[in-house]
Structures are given as structure tokens and as C-alpha cells.
Amino acid sequence: MRSYALILLSILSTSANAQWLTLPNAQTGFLKPIDEFKINPYTNELWSAKSYGMGDGITKLNENGIVTHYSEATLGNQFWIYGDIKIGFTSNNVYYSREQDGLYNLNNGNPNLIFGLQDIFNLRNDSDTLYINRFAQFTYTLVEPNLPNLESYYSDVVSKNGLKFVNLGQINFIENSGFTSLINDSYYLNNPYSIQFKKQTDSLYIGFENGLSVCYKDQCYDTITPYNTINMPSGKIAEIEFDKDDNLWCAFADFSPTPQIDSYHALAKLEGNTWQVYDTTNTPFNWDAYLGMEIDTLGNVWVATGNNLHVLQSNSNPAWLNTIEPEKETFNIYPNPATDYVNVNCSQNINGIQLFDLTGKKMANYSISNIKHTKINTAYLPKGIYIIELLTNTGVLKQKIVVE
What we know:
- The protein is an all-beta fold.
- The chain has 2 domains: 2-322, Methylamine Dehydrogenase, Chain H, CATH 2.130.10; 331-403, Sandwich (Immunoglobulin-like), CATH 2.60.40.1930.
- Helices cover 3% and strands 51% of the residues.
- The protein contains 3 helices and 35 strands.
- The strands form 8 sheets. Strands 30, 31, 32, 33, 34 and 35 form a 6-stranded antiparallel sheet that branches.
- The protein starts with a strand and ends with a strand.
């Protein structure tokens, strides 16, 4: 188990849009969260888990900027052979599961196996009840200090204040061990993809490919779609979160039959009836490497992409972030306006260049690696304004170019 004091680091990257700070994982020690990316609601710690390749394990980032790494040596030799790692919380403990092994209590870095179980695909909690959800099998619940108990419902259960819903391909409300399907409700949009309770009420928000349904118990009472709100990036809701003021945030993606390769393209916050959008034009993200969004209890928005962790700058940012002086990467392009080509010079190695129009449509993708200078062809582009995006080891840099 290792800890890193991020406040001692002096390297961060910034983008042309200064709303986001980027923390490279190579500098922080925070693991690329391939398996899990989650906030502990009791301690406000940010957790990640990765079970593939060298440096596997679990990391946590606390409010003081300290990263603790629970390595394979701590979690068990060759622990990766047991499948994906998932993380869950109660007020007293942190748990993790291995897909084909069972549930463990992390126990301050001295993990112990609580219960042997297979086919675990997520851990959810309702206060101090931990739900151990399994692929097409019955769910177990853990209420401390007892051992997990087999329930009469199965697959993906989500619960708040005792109100339980289960995703069986469609969302069902569970009451007295009976199921009431929401599919026939006029406000239910069909074929759910994401699900989340609002923080300050017991309303359930369900994301679909054409918007969101808002439900309570066995009835839905509202929808949120591109047709009844302004500036919504699309109706395809891949992820739902709520900030400390209960504002709705969503991640939008073009869905694939294989969820692991869904194409994420925007985050947005609903303010009144209008969405505030963060996409390719105003974020430092490599969207092709998007891994997840989490909002901590102070309202900070964290995004994981590839080997980077990003945080939206706000008055609620942890104090340790304000002690770090970012190192600004620079690049220039010329001629600008351009006709047939532009030269690109960067202070950091470039690992790829993408070109977008002002609607966010990708116009070109240039595969390059570890160079600081290059020339790209613009002769084929229609006249107009474009966003050129450079992928570097520490983030994404952007500028506008004009093609005449």
C-alpha cells in the first residue's frame, strides 16, 4: 500500500478552456479506472479500480490530495484472474468484489473475504445496506454485521430509503416481493440504459436512447428530452449524476451493442430548462478514452479519461488543488487563416490530431506519435471555422483555425 501527496506535485496541464484542471495519472498515482470509478458518499474520497495489466489494484484520492494505492500484493497475487473489481460503501466500511471470487472487506488495507460468490457485476448501497448484484442471478444484501442474505429478486437492483427497483431489461418497482413494471406508463420512454436516484428526493431518473423518465414508486410523472428542453446534446443518456444542489448532470453517448465501446461525446448540466454543455469544443478530454463522471459531496465534477483525471474548477474545489501551479502547454498553428495546409508546433509530444467543425462533428483524425512538429492537409475542407485538437501525454489542447 502506497500513498502519494499530490500537494507536492507541480505539474498539471491546462487547456485553451480554463474551466477544467487535468491531473495526469502518471504524476498522481491514481489508477486508470477501467473497472470502477466511484465517490464514497460518507468520506468524499474518490476511488478507482483496475484489474488488467501491470500496476493493477485499487486507489483512493482523499480530500487532502493524498492517493493511496492498494496493489496486487495487498489484494492477493494474480487477483486479476478473478475478473472485474467493483467497490461499495457503508458508513463504517469499504468493500470490493472480484467478479468470480466474492465480496471482501478492504479493512484499511488488510482485506478479508466476507462471502464467496460468483458473477458479481456491481455493488450498490441504500444507506448501510449493500446490494451485491449478479449477472442474471439472485441478488444478495449485506446488512452489517451479518453475512450477505439471498433475496427473492435478481439482476440489477437499485434502492433508496427502502424503495427498490430492478432492471430486468425494463425497470420494475419491487413492493412486498412483487413486481410492477413501469413499461406501460405513458411517461416511460422504453429500453433503459442508466438509472439514478435524485439526492434530495426519492424520485428515480431513468436514461434511455431518447431522453429521461422521472418516476416515483410504480408511476412515472415526467420526461426530459431534446423536445422539451433547450440545448440538450442528444437523447442518448449513458450516465446520470446529481450535484450537491440536486442539479441533473448527464453523459451522452452514441450507444454500441458492446457498452465498453460506446462513443461518449458530451456532458451537460440541466439548469432550469436549458442544458449547459461540455463537449469537444470546451473540454480538455480525449473523448475516445472517456471512462466516467463522478460528483463528490462538495459538488466537484470529476471526469476520468484514459490516463488523466479532470476536475471542473469551482469555488468548492479542494484546497490542495489551489496550491498547485499548472504548467501551461503551448502550441501554435500557421498560417491561420489557412488554405492548403497548416503547420503545428507544440511544446509537448503530440500523440494525435483531430479536427472538428463548430457543431462538434469530427472532420479528420491524424494518426501521429511522439512528435512536436507536423503539417496537416486542409485543402479538402470547406471554407469555415474549425477546432484543431492535439492529444498529448498530459491532456488535450485546442485552438480555432479558419480555412479560406
